[in-house]
Amino acid sequence: MIPIINIRLLDILDILIVAIVLYKLILLIRGTKAVQLIQGLAVIFVASAVSKWLGLYTVNWLLKNTITVVLVALPVVFQPELRRTLEQLGRGKILTEPLPFLSKEEALDTRKTAEVIIQGVLNLAKNRIGALIVLERNTGLKDFIETGIAIDALLSVQLLGNIFIPNTPLHDGAMIIRGNRIAAAGCFLPLTENSSISKELGTRHRSGLGLSEETDALVIIVSEETGIISLAEGGSLKRFLDEKSLQQVLQDYYQPKNSLAFYFKKWREPKDE
Question: What is the DSSP letter of 205?
Answer without folding.
Answer: H
